[in-house]
Amino acid sequence: MRLRSMLAGLVAAVALEASCAGAALAQSLKADEVLSSTSVQPISAPNPVAGADGRVHLAYELLVVNASRLFMTLDKVEAVDASGSSLWSLEGDALAAMIQTYSGGAQQLPPGGSAVVFMDVNFAADAALPKEVLARVTVSRKIAGADGKPAAFPAGEPVPETVTFTGAATGIGAGARVIEPPLRGKGWLAVNGCCDSLTSHRGGVMAVNGLLRVPERFAIDWIQMDTGDRVFDGDVSKLASYPYYGAEVHSVADGVVVNVYDEADEQTPGTIKGITTENIGGNMLAIDIGGGAYAFYAHMQRGSLKVKLGDKVKAGEVIGLLGNTGNTTGPHLHFHLMDGPSPLDANGLPFVLTRFSSPGVAEVTEDTFEKGSPVRIDASRLAGDHRDQLPLNNQVVDFGD
């Protein structure tokens, strides 16, 4: 069988190497070494952030590559500490919901296929964080049948059908930056926020100059509800239907303007036209706030930017107006922190806001943005006053004046 010839050759080669190294090695693989058929590695080290749920989150990504001619299924992914104690795990439907595959099914990788697993390892607020986190991964093999589709893995092969291995060790980076709110007022929705759902931001993995980047890992699209808990009232395609269009945008910290774009016209809500890599963020600012962190503000109104390249800004200063430019279907402020001045060639960094309050979490549906239906707010989740925490996905946020 072709499978046996491939695997048997590999095992024989490893055994020969071991025997040549001396009699001290009695086997080709040590007890903690597994022929895994897949490689797993973190894209970047996680940075801890205190979420509005009272827990500390390590949001990061694992790149998984099927380095074989087999079909490989991801059965379970755990985060473990150096002693092997489980910190967090995903399997079944929960795992499928946090995987982004580039070919194949939700959890099954075809020969040569790859995927990203989005981790949200979280701890109690007073817990001591481990020095490093590893991934313990369980995978299952199937062979490619005569028709090229997955077929049962034969018995008696040099490796088992299902294996569990531990690797992908990563240290833990610096903690979140404390910043001031970028907006003022009540009823702001933290759309596409972190951390436990695969949103357009959380899943925004891209390759730049041969390196994988996740610039929007902690990004939030800020959209304001009116007093009737609607995000627009009237014709969905008219900017005048969005009362928060033109809201003042504030600098979240002292800093220096290092990147500017102010050439994008307003989009008609509901449509997107003329997008390039240059104008994808619409009219935008990137501000160096020190310590290797850059604040990014996107989709602002053309001609509304109050600062220019090289200007120094102060925390709280008005730097522009909320708009609907670039890659957007409706008015909002896209905001995130990143580790470089380029909105695409960077990794996202976590942040916490000095202060905000919340009535709860919005139950956002398609009707919220397409029909202007009132949003139902779940007051049992994340409600209350918050200090030095990150607003989480779909949380309703009141910043005050």
Description of the structure:
Helix content is 7%, strand content 39%. The chain is mainly beta. It has two domains: 31-171, Immunoglobulin-like, CATH 2.60.40; 177-398, Distorted Sandwich (Glucose Permease (Domain IIA)). The longest helix has 19 residues, at 2-20. The radius of gyration is 24 Å and the shape is globular. 39% of the residues are buried.
Which consecutive residue ranges, at least 5 long each, have pLDDT under 50?
A: 1-23
The CATH architecture of the largest domain would be Distorted Sandwich
Shape: globular
pLDDT averaged residue by residue: 93
Question: Helical element count?
Answer: 3
Which bin fits the share of residues in helices? Answer: under 10%
CATH topology of the largest domain: Glucose Permease (Domain IIA)
Give the CATH superfamily of the largest domain: Glucose Permease (Domain IIA)
How many structural units, i.e. domains?
2
Instruction: Characterize the largest beta sheet: strand count, sense, and whether it forms a barrel.
Output: 12 strands, antiparallel
Counted beta strands: 29
Structural class: mainly beta
Name some characteristics of this structure:
12-stranded antiparallel β-sheet; globular; mainly beta; Immunoglobulin-like; 6-stranded antiparallel β-sheet; 401 residues; Glucose Permease (Domain IIA)
